[in-house]
Specification:
With 189 residues, this protein is α+β, with helices and mostly antiparallel strands. The chain folds into two domains: 2-108, N-terminal domain of the delta subunit of the F1F0-ATP synthase (Peroxidase, domain 1, Orthogonal Bundle); 111-187. It has helices spanning 2-20, 24-40, 42-49, 55-67, 77-88, 95-109, 125-139, 170-187; strands at 112-119, 142-149, 156-161, 164-169. The protein has a four-stranded mixed beta sheet, sandwiched between helices. Strand 3 (156-161) and strand 4 (164-169) form a beta hairpin. Helix 1 (2-20) packs across helix 6 and helix 2 (24-40) packs antiparallel against helix 6 (95-109). It starts with a helix and ends with a helix.
């Protein structure tokens, strides 16, 4: 839990700095890419966590890593300063959480809400579009809908929007019935 609140504070600070510089989108892409690299490249994560490697060397390593991809421009000053602070404070492991929280702040500032729908079968894009529009109308915000196929649901779907979850899956209904029967049997009703 501590990591979650610390990562939110870091994300808020870097987002506010990016807003002041009008570079929210650039910093978003940089943080997202860097966090993906930390998650997907164990060698990179190991170097960043290594206690004997100094912050300056870690920073130099990260800038070279970033620059080794021809499509990248140099890291923005905001991302560079943020990364330096994160490395200095020995918090490189928080980078993926910070990137997620940064995205939430950025989406919130643009009136966007992310929603995730898990469906049991193949996607019906007409229904998904209708669901997205309905959620947008209710929330009065643009909805970015992510769709994931999940055969474990058996039938139906689950929908998560921010901190809320709606379960309209067969699996969820069966679990609720099971819990109800257990409760009924336990209480002798």
């Amino acid at each position: 839990m501590k990591d979650a609140s610390v990562s939110r504070r870091y994300a808020r600070a870097v987002f506010q700095a990016a807003q002041q510089n009008r570079s929210e989108e650039i910093v978003f892409h940089e943080l997202t890419w860097l966090s993906r690299q930390v998650l997907e490249q164990p060698a990179l994560a190991a170097v960043l966590r290594h206690p004997r490697v100094r912050t300056a060397k870690k920073m130099s390593f990260m800038e070279r890593w970033w620059g080794s991809f021809p499509e990248h421009k140099p890291l923005s000053p905001i991302a560079k300063n943020f990364l330096r602070i994160l490395l200095h404070n020995k918090r490189s492991g928080l980078l993926p959480l910070v990137a997620l929280n940064y995205e939430k702040f950025w989406n919130e500032s643009r009136g966007i809400v992310k929603a995730r729908v898990r469906i049991a079968g193949e996607a019906d894009f007409n229904r998904l579009g209708m669901l997205s529009r309905t959620l947008g109308g209710v929330s009065r915000r643009e909805v970015k809908l992510e769709m994931i196929e999940d055969s474990r649901l058996l039938a139906g779907f689950t929908l998560s929007v921010e901190d809320m979850l709606w379960d309209a899956s067969l699996k969820g209904r069966l679990e609720r019935m099971k819990d109800h029967f257990k409760h009924t049997l336990k209480n002798g009703q």
